Amino acid sequence: MTLDELDQLDLAAFRATLGGIFEHSPWVAEEAWPLRPFASLDALHAAMCKAVVDAGEEAQLALLRAHPQLAGKAALRGELTESSTREQQGAGLDQCSPGEYARLHELNAQYEQRFGFPFILAVRGHTRDSILANMAARVDNPRDEEFAEALHQVERIARLRLEALLQA
């Protein structure tokens, strides 16, 4: 799909096309739709990110909570979105050793208990080891710092998904 084609879509089609860019949060696409036409992929991404910022902390927390744990139960049951499955497989999270799964599970639980949302990392370019290192390093961050970092990672994931969609 091209950006010009995207700009021509009605709200329902726009939402259907971009509804998964921000995990299980089609409201982000809905908020960006009235700002069409977009001059560039950067402009589209910026509009969607602004919708998240403008939505406030409660909606941002819901957005973070919509993300699955890395190599978590949903992944093991095959319940991830197509994008999340592809991203996690690309980082090798579907090939974890029993020890790696145990460590991921432990860190996921610590992180979610401490912050109230799952650990989020744009995993493209990461390995299982670098993901585990990121989790271990971030689990002790102050909550406000980690909330901001999680939102930053969501924006990175969204950017990568937009690039994949518009270059397919």
Characterization of this structure:
With 168 residues, the protein is mostly helical. It has two domains: 60 residues, no CATH class; 88 residues, Oxo-4-hydroxy-4-carboxy-5-ureidoimidazoline decarboxylase (UraD-like). The protein is 65% helix and 0% strand. Helix 8 packs parallel to helix 9. The longest helix has 25 residues. The protein is globular, with a radius of gyration of 16 Å.
CATH topology of the largest domain: UraD-like
N-end to C-end Cα span: 7 Å
Number of domains as seen in the coordinates: 2
Tell me the strand percentage band: under 5%
Oligomer: single chain
Structural class: mainly alpha
Number of helices: 10
| Rg from alpha-carbon coordinates | 16 Å
| Residues in helix, % | 55-70%
Any idea what the shape is?
globular
Unreliable runs: none
Overall strand count: 0
Average pLDDT, all residues? 92
CATH arch. level architecture of the largest domain: Orthogonal Bundle
CATH class of the largest domain: Mainly Alpha
> What is the ordering of alpha helices and beta strands?
HHHHHHHHHH
Main sheet record = none
CATH superfamily of the largest domain: Oxo-4-hydroxy-4-carboxy-5-ureidoimidazoline decarboxylase
